[in-house]
Amino acid sequence: MTQSPGRSHANGIQGLLFDALFQDMQEAAVLADPDRRIVRTNAAAEALFGYAAHELAGQRTAVLYANEDDFLEQGRRRFNPSAKPSHEGYRIAYRRKDGSTFPSETIGSTLRDETGAILGYLGIVRDLSEQSRIEACLHDLYAVSTDQQQGPTARIDAMLALGCDFFGLPLGIVSRIEDRVYTVAHVAAADPGPGVGDQFDLGQTYCWHTLAADDVVAFDHAGNSEITGHPCYRTFQLETYIGIPLLVDGVRHGTLNFSGWQPRSQPFSDSDREFMRLFARWIAFEISAQRAFRQIEAARARAEAADSTKSRFLATMSHELRTPITGVLGMIDLLETTDLQTEQAGYVRQIRECTQGLLALLNDVLDLSKIEADQLSLELVPTDVTALVRSVVATFSAAAAQKGVAIEVRAPAASLLVETDPTRLRQILLNLLSNAVKFTPHGQVTVALDLAETAAATAWLRLSVRDQGPGIPADQQEKIFEAFQQADPTVARRYGGTGLGLAISRRLARALDGDISVSSVPGQGATFSVALSVPLVDSDIAMAPAEASAQAHRAPALPEPGQTRPLRLLVAEDNSVNAMLLDAMLGRLGHRVTIVGDGVAAVEEATGLETYDAAIFDLQMPLMDGEQAARRIRAAGDPISRLPILALTADMVADCAQSCDLTPFDAFLTKPIDWQHLTATLARVVAEREAAEDGPTHAAQRPPGVHLPLLDRAQLDALAVSLGEGWVKSFVGEAAQTLADLGRAATDDAAAGRHQTATDHLHSLKGTALNLGAPRLAALADWLGRLTDGDDRPATGPDAAALRLFADTVDATVGALNDIAAPAETGSERRGHPG
Q1: What angle do CA 817, 823, 824 make, to 5 degrees?
Q2: Are 389 and 358 in contact (CB under 8 A)?
Q3: Neighbours of 180 (CB within 10 A)
Q4: C-alpha span between 174 and 218 (Å, rounded)
C-alpha cells in the first residue's frame, strides 16, 4: 500500500520532532531494535555510560547491564512481544565503559507501529548515584543518632566523620561562636590540626562568610573565588569549603563546616546544599541533647550537694542534741545508784521519763528527715515475726494494765519466718501499739498477725492493731498520716504527741514494700492494718533476735560491779559531762580509765608507755576525729595496732554500723549509752583480740569487707536509669579495664616496696570501684592503701597473703564487670584545621 504524500510529510515532521526530543533529553536514552540491539543513544547516555555512539551501535543492551541476570529478567518482563505496556520506573544497576557500576531508575517501553508490530524498545535511564549516596549517609546518620551506647559528644563526632566521608573532605568542624570568638567544639580530621577548645578570631575564618549569608556557603576552588583576598584564605589556604550556620533551640550557636586543601573536582550541587541543611538540623538536635544532658548532670550535682549538706546538718544536729541527752540520762543512771529518799526517787523517775520523751521526739524528727532525704537504710534479715510481735506487746503490757486495758495477741502458735528489717518493723508496731494503748481508756487492744502466701517464695505479711478509742472521722483518716497532723487539734493537749508517729510508720511500711491503712467509725475505735510483701525463709536459718533493745521505753538495768574482769581502758571524749559520766560508770564497774579530750591526745596515749586492754573513741572530736585517730593506731605496728577500739557516736544518721568493715573500729556504740551493751561489747572485743594473738596475722592485716558482694547491682541499676543502659555498659567496659590496670600496678608496686606509687594507684582504684558499685574491692583497696601509706605504714608492710587476696578480688571484680558490659567501639580523636 502506497503512503500518501501528506502522511509521508507528517511522518517526516514526527521524525524530526523525535530526533530533537531524543537528543535534547537530560536523561540518558537508549533506542534498541526488536532483538535488543542498540540502534541509537543520545548525548546524555554517551556521557553517562562513557561510550561513543558508534561504540554502542549494533551491540546488545546486555553490554550496559551490571549483571547479566538482570538483562535476562528484564527481557522476560518488559522487552518482548508479549509484555504489557508499562511506564513505571524500576531500579537496576548498570555498568560504564570503565567497569564502574551505578544505580539507576529506568523507564522501559515498547515501540510499535500502527499494526501493533514491534519496532523496538526505548529505555530512559536516570542516574541515582547521588541519591543513593545521600540515602546511605542518612541511614548511617540515623544509626548514629539512635546509638544509645554513645553519649551526645561521641555521636556528634561520629556524625562529623560521616560528613567528611560524604563530601570527600578531610576536615569537619562544629564551632561555637560567642563575641566574635570562634571556638572549635567538635572536630573530625584525617590530618593533625587544631583540637577541641582552640580559638580563632571569627573575622579570620571562612565562617565569617557563612554567618553573613545566613545559609549554606560553598567554595569548590577558593583560590578562584571572590575570597582570595580575605584573611581566611590567606591564613588557612583551604581551597574547598562548605558551611552552614547552626541554630540550637532557636538560637544561633555556631557553624557546621567541612573543608579541604585541594580544589574540588565537581562543584557543590543543589543536593549537597540541601543535605547540609538537613545535616545541620541533625547536629543541632544532638547539641541540644548534649546541653540537656549537661543540665541534668548539673542539676543532679546540685541535688547531691544539697543532699550532702542536709546529711551533714542532720548528723551535726543529731550529735549536738543527743550528746547532752546522753549526759542527762547517764547522770540519772549514776544518781539511781545512790541512796535516794522515796520522794527523790520519784523526782528522778520523772526526770528520766521527760528525758526519754525528748529523746523519742528527737529520734522521730531525725527519722522523718532521713526518710525525706531518701537516706533511710534497711537491713533485711531473716526474722521471726511472731516472736517480734510478742516482744513488742510485752513492752506495753505493764503500762496497759495500769490503765485497765488488756492486750490480746492473735497470732499463729508456730513461728512466721520472713525476710524483713526487724528494727523498722518493730518501730512501726511500737508506734501503732503505743497509740492504741494511749487512746483506749479501758477495754481491750487486739494485735493480729497472719501470713498469706502468694508464690513459692513470697507472701503478704498482715499485721493489725485494733483499739477501743474514740475513733477517727472518715474525712480525717488520710490526714493523720501527714507529718505533724492529728485528727483532732485537742488530741495533743489531751494525750500528748507530735503527730509524727503515723507519718513515719507509713513511710517505713512503704520502704518495706508495703503500706498502712486505717478503718474506723467514730465512737467504735480504729483498726490500723499493715500489709508487707515479704520473702519467706527456711526454718533452719538463724533469726534476728526478737528481744531487740526496748530501753527507750523502760529504765535500763545497769551492770553490777564485778560483772566483768577489770580492764585498762583509754577513753577519748571531748564533752566534759560525757567524759565524767564514762569515767564514773566505767570506774564503778571496776575498770581503770584514762580520759583524753581529742584524737591527737588519744594517739599519743595509745602509742605511749601505758598498755591498754581496749579504747573507746567519740567520733566527733577537735584536732583529730575518732576515725583518724583509730587509723593512726591501726598503722602503728604490733602490738599497738591490735588494740580493740570501740566507736562512740551520737550520729544516728550516718548508719555507722553498716559501714563497719570500711573503718578501723571493732564495734559501734550509740548515745545514749546502753551500759549493758557496752559491757558485753567490751568483753567480746577483748576476748576476740586475745584469741587472735595466737594466730599468725596481726589485726592491722585482717582484711575487711571480704563478706561484701563483688557488685552492688542496685547501684548499677540506678546508673542505668539515670544515664541509659547502653551508656552504662560502655562505661562499665572501659572502667573494668581501668580497674585491671590499676590493680596490677598497685600489686606490683606494693610487692616491690614502692609504697607511695602503690598508695596513689590504690586511691584511684578505690574511687573507681565505689563509682562502679564494687564494695568488696573498694574496702580492700582502702585497707591495703592504709597499710602502704607513708607515715601510717605498719612496720611489716602488706604480706603476701594480703596482696594475693587483693589481686584475686581485682580479677573477680573485673570478670563480673566484663560479663555486664557490652562490646563498645572507641575511636581516636581526629584533629584538623578550622573552617
Answers
A1: 110
A2: no
A3: 9
A4: 16
831 vs 376: which has the higher pLDDT: 376
User: What H or E segment, with its residue span, contains residue 452?
Assistant: strand 443-453
CA 652 to chain centre: 27
Q: Which amino acid is at 464?
A: S
Count Cβ neighbours within 10 Å for each residue of 485-502 and write b for 16 or more, e otherwise: bbbeeebeeeeebbbbbb
With residue 329 as reference, give the H or E element that holds it: helix 270-335
pLDDT at residue 614 greater than cutoff 90: yes
pLDDT band at 253 (very low <50, low <70, confident <90, very high): very high
What the block records as the C-alpha cell of 263 is: 580544589
Q: Is 499 within 8 Å of 486 (Cβ atoms)?
A: yes
Please count the residues of the chain. 835
The per-residue pLDDT for range 366-407, each reduced to its tens digit, is 766 666 666 667 778 888 888 888 888 887 887 788 888 999
**What is the share, in percent, of the chain residues with pLDDT greater than 90?**
21
Span 81-138, pLDDT tens digits: 777 766 778 889 999 999 999 999 998 888 888 888 888 888 899 988 888 888 888 8
Q: Which residue has the higher pLDDT, 555 or 66?
A: 66
H or E element: which one contains 43? helix 43-49
Burial class of 625 by CB neighbour count within 10 A (0 to 12, 13 to 18, 19+): middle
Residues 6 or more apart whose Cβ sits within 8 Å of residue 304: none
Q: Which of 700, 693, 705, 665 is nearest to 797 (CA)?
A: 700
Read off the pTM: 0.42
Cβ atoms of residues 413 and 373 within 8 Å = no
pLDDT of 318 reads 66
CA distances from 195 to 174, 183, 188, 830 (A): 11, 10, 9, 8
Cell of 137: 549517609
CA dist., res. 190 & res. 209, Å (int) = 24
Give the integer Cα–Cα distance in Å for 73 and 67.
10
Dihedral sign (CA 661, 319, 652, 326): positive
> Any idea what DSSP says for residue 623?
S
- Going by C-alpha positions, the residue among 255, 247, 242, 251 that lies closest to residue 281 is 247
Whole-angstrom distance, CA of residue 733 vs CA of residue 334: 60
Rounded to whole angstroms, the Cα distance separating 51 from 58 reads: 13
- The pLDDT value recorded for residue 826 is 37
Mean pLDDT check: name the lowest of 53-57, 242-246, 702-706. 702-706
Other C-beta atoms lying within 10 Å of the C-beta of residue 779: 24
Helix 775-788 / helix 725-751 crossing angle, nearest 10 deg: 30
- Residue 36 half-sphere exposure, CB side, CA atoms within 13 Å? 18
Which distant-in-sequence residues (6+ apart) come within 8 Å of 826 by Cβ? 734
pLDDT tens, 623-657? 898 989 998 998 887 788 889 999 987 665 444 44
Number of helices (H) and strands (E) in the chain: give both, helices first.
23, 23
What is the rounded distance in angstroms from the CA atom of residue 52 to the CA atom of residue 42? 10
Nearest CA-CA partner of 640 in 597, 678, 602, 682:
602
Under DSSP, is residue 669 helix (H, G, I), strand (E, B) or coil?
Answer: strand
- H or E element at residue 311: helix 270-335
